[in-house]
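RETRY 2/3 - previous attempt timed out on the joint model. Re-submitting the same 1062-residue input unchanged.
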Amino acid sequence: MNGFACKPPESVKADDFTFRGLNKPGDTNNTAGFKATLVTVNQIPGLNTQGVSMVRLDFAPGGVNAPHIHPRASELLIVMEGTLEVGFVTTLPETKLITKVLQAGEAFVFPQALTHYQRNVGKEAAVGIAALDSQNPGTQPVVAAVLGSCPKIPVEVVAKALQADDSVATQLQSKFK
Amino acid sequence: MNGFACKPPESVKADDFTFRGLNKPGDTNNTAGFKATLVTVNQIPGLNTQGVSMVRLDFAPGGVNAPHIHPRASELLIVMEGTLEVGFVTTLPETKLITKVLQAGEAFVFPQALTHYQRNVGKEAAVGIAALDSQNPGTQPVVAAVLGSCPKIPVEVVAKALQADDSVATQLQSKFK
Amino acid sequence: MNGFACKPPESVKADDFTFRGLNKPGDTNNTAGFKATLVTVNQIPGLNTQGVSMVRLDFAPGGVNAPHIHPRASELLIVMEGTLEVGFVTTLPETKLITKVLQAGEAFVFPQALTHYQRNVGKEAAVGIAALDSQNPGTQPVVAAVLGSCPKIPVEVVAKALQADDSVATQLQSKFK
Amino acid sequence: MNGFACKPPESVKADDFTFRGLNKPGDTNNTAGFKATLVTVNQIPGLNTQGVSMVRLDFAPGGVNAPHIHPRASELLIVMEGTLEVGFVTTLPETKLITKVLQAGEAFVFPQALTHYQRNVGKEAAVGIAALDSQNPGTQPVVAAVLGSCPKIPVEVVAKALQADDSVATQLQSKFK
Amino acid sequence: MNGFACKPPESVKADDFTFRGLNKPGDTNNTAGFKATLVTVNQIPGLNTQGVSMVRLDFAPGGVNAPHIHPRASELLIVMEGTLEVGFVTTLPETKLITKVLQAGEAFVFPQALTHYQRNVGKEAAVGIAALDSQNPGTQPVVAAVLGSCPKIPVEVVAKALQADDSVATQLQSKFK
Amino acid sequence: MNGFACKPPESVKADDFTFRGLNKPGDTNNTAGFKATLVTVNQIPGLNTQGVSMVRLDFAPGGVNAPHIHPRASELLIVMEGTLEVGFVTTLPETKLITKVLQAGEAFVFPQALTHYQRNVGKEAAVGIAALDSQNPGTQPVVAAVLGSCPKIPVEVVAKALQADDSVATQLQSKFK
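RETRY 2/3 succeeded.
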């Protein structure tokens, strides 16, 4: 993960810079109705130190890419097919939702490490392609991080965050294995 | 926000580099039992371009700094008084909670933009001092971002993130003004 | 061009983060048989400081995106439709061509500021979407830079670069207005 | 020192992010009446690539943290107890001393790699906590660097810097072992 | 190539920071009438992570440093002896040549990764010293990259870039071994 | 000081990238026998954001560039004429002097913000050309910063740093106006 020079220049070959596998839709036959297919330094060794990665996002109708952050990247999304509602939330003290409905051919930017989501609000499958300014951006779905980490975050902490009783927090946590 | 040179060097004075107001405990008489007092470029103009800020964290017994992220910073925390339980969650696919109970004089690091929390698990007030590697780190409490943004994130999106019914999501959202 | 904060957070709106216009193919009815449609900070003000941009590349059959560099970015390309031959050249002393033929769904990385090209080697139109790790990457077609700048680079310099006579250089330069 | 990924994510544990030992005052029973206790990547492996570190500064009455630089960091200091006089010197051509007397709860910033000092001007012990924007900031006390390096800087160089005779320089150097 | 710390501080010695061999003119007895002598991290291990390198440029009368880029650096050139014509080309849509004739003692900057050249337009040998803001800037002569890579860029691509027939492209390519 | 784009690309001209005035030796007829002539963003507006600057160093026989730091840069020096003794001091806990005598044509690197000096140990004038990896590196002569700032650093602080009596510190300070 540290430097293009870890492979001697004379032995570099085209396959170090190539990735196959975005040609078919991601499988959205799951609860979220959503699938992300990544192209990061884990898929292309030659991306190391280049500071960029991409992701293909497939959505069934009604499918949701739940609120999440990329701790090391900003994201620029282009809708390729269908209609996506997108949004991100600003930091304190505003906590504003900046949201938009995008048709195919429209783009939207999610600033560095802010909580954001996408949802297919059309009647057909939707596809997005996004760029991120890190070869290793990382992803953290924030609700799953709070409710479903392993081990669990103590219920008292979760309850305070929810402004709810411990029993509510416990019940919500129990849905995450 | 762009460059130390926005003020001519000859007119720079000590007050541009000084902040007063961390001498008394933050007021923790609130629901969370917690108060953060910031020292960022908003408080000290001379911090501009210097890439560092600090925060004083005061906790009543049982007080919680709810799970949150700093989109533009890593954080290093020192417990000054009392006992804090701290933790952060790693990115996909792990989503592990890395957690520790810290006594006064102990330190812990929360990596760049990962969801983390602190809780006073002692019987006395607790105080922490933290360093962040940005003069403008930003803070986003992730549960409040998902449930309490303005306008609200659509209930269907929140429900999918919670793996719960829309009615649960609506009820949870209603607690945030 | 200097900082997200140039617009006060409270007046930020969704349109600052949105771009329309990638929904139809770029017009490839030109000599190169190629058209690039950019999504940079010039198109989306909210991209400022976010370090990322994208571009849609349309190719007629046989169309060529001539050898060029992006002085401030690496590039990651996904072929959306058709078949593209792509390649980049390494630095001295190697000057190797790293090349590949990509089908739809395949990706390739062009390292920071190295000369690279793409060509549609299929019988149908081809479309690519690329990510760059700068909100303002810049583009310089290197042959046009050497032969067609305004004013022209002196013919003696061009001839030496071509390892050819001045008359050859003059003739080549004359094709660029 | 190169990258968070040097340890596989699945084997990361809380101790990699924890440091113990700031709970008792540094021993100031020395000539300077001062002790620095560091929390850098040398103490917390998990700080690697996170770009932040901290230091606890203990001062006996009259104790001095002699003029020094951190070659790779800016510093933000909070006085926790007592009264500290602090100052830094600007670059050429100004060479101004920007100085302030700070009480407990007050903060001050020392810009990137500029010569700065702190002194306890109160009658009690003083304690400061400082943040630095590097996991490995380094420290160089500038007078000791000029007079007490090993081997010594030639006396003629030191004399010119002091605008003094060689004999003065020699005598000053002799105090540093 | 990753970090100053790869050598333990206690074993660092002066030779790690020293380079010999700029004392005599580079041999300009070649077709270009030009020779570059580099001082990068390849010559001085201690340059690693320091972000700077230098190069000595020797020109016979009429000698040319053909149009080239440094993918990872900006360049600042000082003419030490003789008279150099220098120039760089801006990015699209301008593609302007910014050019100047420099006498000994004059300096010029070539921005990050833009195509640039130098030529000795005096009657004597000329010498330049340049600084680059990377310890490993890389060099790519753009005409040789397009016409002389190994393997060759397909002639159809080169012809389109030249706005010329394939036969012209083939002939130009044939001059590069 | 913030961004190449502050001048519209279409109005950029060659003079924005040019500096005249290194053609004659700096005047070394002073106490130090030394003169630095800078080429930074203050001299060349087009250096802005390019991250590089240069300096010409002229030394009379015996002339000294007193120990100093550049807070925002590493430095790479080439000796053009004469013989220079150079050295830098490492950080705590080593405080080693890394030193070398350089002849014309030899180069040496001074790492980021470490105290360093140069001295002409030959019988003729000496000339050096140095590169720095910032367009605005800044310079701080550390002895003058400690003894000669305006206002003065308190004598007690200086005395502790010198490990000497206050009277010694006072006397040394008095030589700096």
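The two ends of chain F are 32 Å apart (CA to CA). Closing ticket.
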